[in-house]
Write a sequence for this structure.
């Protein structure tokens, strides 16, 4: 179970970083969301993964640590607020600049960048 958990955290982290490096704002927002999910899973795993652990002390022999769960709950709220702010900021940038590129500039058109050289050879 731990190997599958680590694999999922790794895939979420890789996907989040890959999407954050894109040039448009929507993939960046999606990448930040996936990174926040990966961090939340990492924080949750710091309290040890137990299948039969009780959340209340004294009801079972083994119990789970409530601190990582409280940290994850706080991180979910902060992450949601951050994503909402980034979406509003991206919408404002789209309205002001007319495009949704992160740097505000459109990349050079591929048709204009590659000049036909067939007739010159």
């Amino acid at each position: 179970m731990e190997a599958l958990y680590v694999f999922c955290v790794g895939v979420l982290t890789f996907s989040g970083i890959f999407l954050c490096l894109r040039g448009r704002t929507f993939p960046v927002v999606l990448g930040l969301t996936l990174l926040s999910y990966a961090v939340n899973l990492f924080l949750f795993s710091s309290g040890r993964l137990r299948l039969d652990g009780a959340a209340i002390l004294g009801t079972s022999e083994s119990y789970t640590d409530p601190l990582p769960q409280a940290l994850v709950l706080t991180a979910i709220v902060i992450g949601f607020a951050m994503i909402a702010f980034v979406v509003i900021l991206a919408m404002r940038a789209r309205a002001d600049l007319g495009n949704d590129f992160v740097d505000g500039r459109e990349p050079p058109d591929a048709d204009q960048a590659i000049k036909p050289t067939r007739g010159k050879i």
